[in-house]
Amino acid sequence: MSAEIGEDPNWAVQQLKVEFRFRRNSSLRGASMETEQSELVIPRQLLCCKLCDEEFTEPCYLPCLHTFCQNCIDKHRLNSTDNDGYFPCPTCMTEVSPEEEDGAAALPINILARRLSVPVIDPVKRETLCFYCKNAGNFVEGKTHCIDCDEFLCKLCADSHTRQEEFSDHQLQSEEDYNADLEKSSCTTVQGQVIPICCDAYDPLDIGAMFCVGCDIAVCADCHVNKHGEHRCAELTAIAQHFEKKIKEPLKELDNDSEEISAFLSDLDVKEHTILEQKDALKQHVQDRTKQLCSLIKDYEKLLLDDIERRFDDQIEDIKARRLDLEMHLEAIKGVKDFTENLLTYGSYEEKVHLRKKVGYRIRELCEESLGTEPIEIHSVRLMEPNVTGDTICDMFGTIETGNQSAHKENEHIQDSLPSSEHFQRYHSFGDSGHGSDSMDQVENEPELVEIFEKGELQRQDSKQESSDTDMLSSSNSSDKMKNVKFREQVDRNEFDIENVFNLENPKREVNLPAPIQKECIKGIGINEKGDIIVGTSTTVHVLEKRGIVRGQIPLENGWNIHSVSSDGKVSMTVPRGDNRFKVRVLKSDGTGHILYDFHVESFGLNFVTADQSGTLIITSNRYAQIHKSHGKAAKSGGNIAFYGSDGHLIRRITNDNFQANLLEKPQMVVVDQKRNRTYVADPGSHRVIALNAKGDLIFEYGNKEGEEEIYQGPDLISIDKYGNIIVTDKREGRIDILSTKGNLKKSFFTDDIPRFVGATPDKLLVTAMPDGSMKFYEYLT
After folding, report:
1. Following DSSP, what letter does each residue of 393-424 receive, concatenated?
2. Of 615, 595, 599, which is closest to residue 648 (Cα–Cα)?
3. 554, 549, 539, 555: which is closest to 514 by C-alpha?
4. Which of 427, 485, 502, 736 is deepest in the core (most CB within 10 A)?
5. pTM score, two decimals?
6. CA distance linking residue 652 with residue 638, whole number of Å
7. Is the pLDDT of residue 641 over 90?
């Protein structure tokens, strides 16, 4: 056999391959030993599942690259999956939906975690003595291995082995090839095939083994030449080193981001600690102030009780004196009567004649004397009702404000200005009624309405990452697993399709407004949360129950005019004061006539007026005030939405400058979603509906867009239902759209009539009020 090998022309090439594999294997083993010596101990967090806190069993990872046990993530997915099949990552809450294969979710295996969890055991070295020689009692080293018999043979026995007819088809290999296959099979058994290979002939230790970047597969020398010759191929170690080099820069950026976030989290901890300290201090301050006020109230209580004793004791003394006088007068009458009766009964004529003048004089004296039975006037002494309101309590106790040092100084001023016992004594001594006679007249001063506009530039910093390795790193962002990450906007964007278009017909019930109301000029109609119909006319606010029966009427005061009626039933009234000033009053939607807002405001025109439940006034207009350094305040054209506080001062004004887009041209009707802290505005000028949050930031817009088919000629009316759906009406199109809370179209209804009002009742019915005075109720959610 040695002669055959020596005569083989490829023998030298085979020897070079063996030498190369030996050197490459030795270098890989040396690198592995150095790595093990440098790491020594693998961190526990790399080997433990964060759900069960145990060592990984069948580790798999999500698109966000967080790793869990297969059983743990299956249980989590079973309990957390929504109706669309999406579930959040337990660590970072990224919404993911793994690919479905044969009805079971397929998550990629984390080969790194699996390899680190299972220690690599070196293959067991077998003795290499010749099988035949050992049986004969000779111990000769075998240099050839029979693959079929799995025995080592010496050169002579190997030649004899293959000459035998029954072993002529057996395959032989050298000892070096056997050791290489043994190590390869051991590694594959532990961690499985990491990357796909071209065929069974692939040997990672072969000098011709390559990796095709385009096909993402490991190829042997033959497949490299025959199938991947024109592809981008390189050695596996070179590609791995290239990846290590290119990934360092993005990792460095992530490290910087991590440091910045960690520093910000530390700052948040400091701020949280500061806030908690301020909260505790403020609570203690409130408790101390309460004790002080309670002490003052106790002092005043003592003064009132002493005054009550004095006032009632005086009346009691008067009664006692009157009683004594009457008793003495009664005794005098009794004495005269007894004396006279005894004289008449037992006296002689001489005695009667002798005493007649004295008795007559005494009786006449008593009869002429006042009896003292005049009615005694009891003075009504009562405790007057205190003139205590929320404002007086706030003035006396103090209010909670969010601000800088000024708030603290104001609290100190209020603390110093709290009344003392001497104040109570002086107040108490003004008069018998217990109230001061020199009460101060309260003068209502209108606040100065000056708007200050501050323009700030919002700078948006976008971090851009450039990489030349488009074949490797960029492919990770477009992989199938990363495509499974699904965001909420994508979930709801196509929730409803264009097929949800209906004709508004077949009302469930119909109500006609009373004839007297139809004869008046109707300014607006709304429906409150109880289902009552609020109708505002030129002279009266009518409250009707859902069947159209008048339940109450609120006449307008002289000079007031109804300006707007919101869809939820709030009635807004105005009185012009000149110079773009208005007296504005908003009534609550409960139909009682109670005032929600009442103050003076300054506005360059009023398109629509309403208020939220907290008393914040909302006004839309086409112009607004702007202050110039040269010529002071002037009107600037542009749609805007203004928010005024309960004191009439401007809180916030939303203009197109806030959106960096022309979204507001002629904003009209406004509706407030109190539960979700949102404000919706219909703008027939820009043909859009916009949604704002509590801070005035844009949530979404819906309507006509450039380059797309027009949707609205309006819209003119807007309202919401109890579920938060937005009801948008375009009168000229006869169109009623139902939008979700995210601005997606759910349904569209079309009507031949032009509605005067469109809204929703608490019992899930769509309401349309027509010019003929009829109100129709439709089912719209089915």
Report:
1. HHHHH------SHHHHHHHHHHHHT---HHHH
2. 599
3. 549
4. 736
5. 0.41
6. 15
7. yes
